[in-house]
Model the fold of this input.
Amino acid sequence: MSDGPVQFTLSADEALVLFEWVSRFTETPSGEFEDQAEEKVLWIIEGILEKALVAPFRADYGELLAAARDAVRSVDESPPEDLGP
Done:
């Protein structure tokens, strides 16, 4: 398994659908999809990650996941800057 970043490409439409869902989810975390296209984009991302990652298939996945969560959290504890116009 590589420790480098996992990269993938989304079409402009897929990115927009994902953005809308994520934006809405962060405001009201109901987990509900407004449109089937949102769910499909997540399936696409899941498939890409499934092909790229080895960790989910390892016996110590729980430990690896906990370490990854800690690492992501500790990268920057401050909220993201406003990237508006």
